[in-house]
Amino acid sequence: MTDMTVDTGPVQGESRSLWATAMLRLRRNKAAMASIFVLIVLALAGIFGPMLAPHSYSKVYPEFVKVKPSLESYPQEEQVIPAAESALRRARVDLGAIDVEDGKVRIEVSSDSRDIDPRISRYLDRSSVFSDAEITIDPADPKKGVIEASVQQLYFLMGTDANGRDLFSRILISLRISLMIGALATAVALTIGVIYGATAGFVGGRVDNVMMRFVDVMYSLPFVFFVILLVVFFGRNLVLMFLAVGAVEWLDMARITRGQTLSLRRREFVQAAEALGVSGRAIVRRHIIPNTAGTVIIYMTLLIPKVILLESFLSFLGLGVQEPLTSLGVLISEGAKNMRNAPFMLFYPAATMTILLFALNFLGDGLRDALDPKDR
Amino acid sequence: MAKQIHSDRVLEIDNIRVTFDTPDGAVEAVRGVSMHVRRGETVAVVGESGSGKSQIMMSAMGLLASNGQATGAVRYRGEDILNLPVKKLNKIRGAKISMIFQEPMTSLDPLYTIQDQLCEPLMVHGGLSRSKARARVLELLKLVQIPDPERRMKSYPYEMSGGQRQRVMIAMALANDPDLLIADEPTTALDVTIQADILHLLAELQARLGMSILFITHDLGIVEAFADRVYVMRKGQLEEEGETQQIFQAPATDYTRMLLDAEPSGQKSAPAADAEVMLSGKDVVVTFGTPGGFLRKDTQFTAVKGIDVALHREQTIGIVGESGSGKSTLGRALLQLLPSEGRVVYLGQEISGLDRAHMRPYRDGLQMVFQDPYGSLSPRMTVSEIITEGLLVHEPGLSQRERAERAAQALEDVGLEPSMRNRFPHEFSGGQRQRIAIARAVVLRPKVIVLDEPTSALDRSVQKQVIELLRRLQKEHALSYLFISHDLAVVRALSDYVMVMRDGKVVEQGLTEQVFDNPSQQYTRDLMRAAFDLREILREKLA
Q1: Class level of CATH domain B277-291+302-374+447-542
Q2: How many CB atoms neighbour CB B135 within 10 A?
Q3: A&B contacts, CB < 8 Å
Q4: What is the pLDDT of residues B239-272, one digit of tens each?
């Protein structure tokens, strides 16, 4: 409804670019907005979570292997006494009453044959459960004493893995790695794909033919084989992952951009630019690429989850990131191995992954609606 | 309103309102319009784009966009069909009320043959068997006068011309013997001669089948020739209604008078005979496709077959012809936007065959304005970016401020506020966009502008303003125009020399008055008649 009879009057309302209009439409899409919120939270958790988490993702707690997720602190009360007993076994003293109270443990020790050696408190310190052990030897009877030590209060909200590492911290670091691979590999694919596709589509003719046949050749390489080859030659490392995934995913992007370019090429504004004498490179940069942006962005939001899944797949096969670093795929792979006795090891990483992918896909969907090329 | 039963009224639209929910709040496209159609009557709804005339019909047929809402009443034979559930509505629409649309190119499914497309509704809605449906389709195709209907039934839409597709659409609409045919600008995308044929077909069918026609158009020429009664709409409201004759002879409102007066007028005198030749082409040939060769089919098609043209300073050459006659191709070939053969000379310099880089120094003198004001402006650039793009190429020494000044000046030149330069093209109306496109050309201070149907997508009243603008710019900057159009009225108003093209050849050329008043070729005469004497043609054919 923009046509007016009086043709020279100013346009009503405030000026708004297509992007602003798209954002406006996106903002009305509740699922997409919720997804953006979730993604921001997950990204922040990935970036800052590992710094703030109480445990390092690589710290091993040998006493707490595959412990269940719990809101209470570890060790739990019934575990303290056996832990103390096993810690003091080598001290060769008799243990009396053991009281646990407010994160403190009080152990009465006695010996029949010898005086209590005050150094035995170190046995307790060596255990990761206890710290600040102090021994008080009964002044009246040196064969009796009391050891007081604070009990460590470790929280494993999501339990620990098969090596006794905190699963929550590991999920945080894996989020960081997975998001990083998702973002970087997508950026690689995007840059190469858009430039390659736009060039091929714009130049056309024989150049287009050669460029797209090269893409076809790349397509026909079996991906896993390609990655295994790279890993065999260069060893496992993270940069290689970006390269491998990016090198495969740009092909789709190139084809999509080329298709878009072919249709844009026939639009009159491109012809108008040619009539102005604008050079081919400037036309691609100013007219073609900005107008493919809508499609490209939509595809990008769908590419990120694809890349994350791809990385998980590679990690599942053991071709991905290296220990102690981890990614969601590695965690899920480990969880799958321990599915019977520690189902939580599968559940939490899988839930995180699901939420992440859901949010990305919902956002992609919302963007598709918002950037719908029908409403110019 | 009194609830009278008008038994002769096929369709009654009662105080309809259509509201669209947009990010800027509700927009009322139609504000309380009432109209009716009697049995066997042809009613025209006229108005400029944006007047809401199509939206009324869309809401009546349940085809409103998802953010639109309609209130009021639409009665078909006394039964309210507005906002009926789709299932009930489908019993009426397509069967009793059917619709044909503007774009015959896109309203047929490209994947099905004509026969499949026409048979399906007959088999699904009409419950006919396949063989009976086929027989009926043949009958319908004969009814709409498609030549060789048996063969045409097996063709795909792309094999047919625009006029033939529109005939197929009409056949589809007639399949279930409707009482009312709603035609939404059915001839706007067609050439004048084909437009005359289609209108004639509609008139004949109406006389034979006794249906009513509700005709939506912005072209008053058609209305005068075709309709019994007229509703004039403006900004979502009814401006005026009455018998066609009465409205055309004694319009009651200024707006209707303005619409009637919007026919392009005036003429241009030829430049001095010794005026400098700006751009000339000799024996220009444009061939598309690739020649045949080993294992390859010959796909060559010659669109322009050896044309000579010489454009003098301050001259306007009008190039007219039906679509597919090669007139746009010729314009582009002269500007070296298409590979072509022949000799093209610009200001004494041969420019034919120059590549992109060598052509660049001449580009600022040779500009082009395109047909579609919606497609020729990049949607993601601001107006000032669009206008100054050429300056970046041809005057790279300019500072940003100088460029902004030039852009502001060009905007003023074309009658737009310079303060609008930071807006985006989609915020402007069609006429304003065409002004921006013209500003983009004149900012480079060109000497020759090829105007490729610059007014075809615009309303008549806006067209008139653009014509005035082109005239003024020509005088102020001593421009030479190559004006390509199928609209003869506009060509007559703007150009001093006319070339009539057909199938890539010039069939007639000469001074404007001479060609228009005294055409020597039958083809030219047909074009003139279809454009200026639509009424005569219809009357003659129906008699």
Answers
A1: alpha beta
A2: 13
A3: 135
A4: 889 998 888 888 888 888 888 888 787 888 888 7
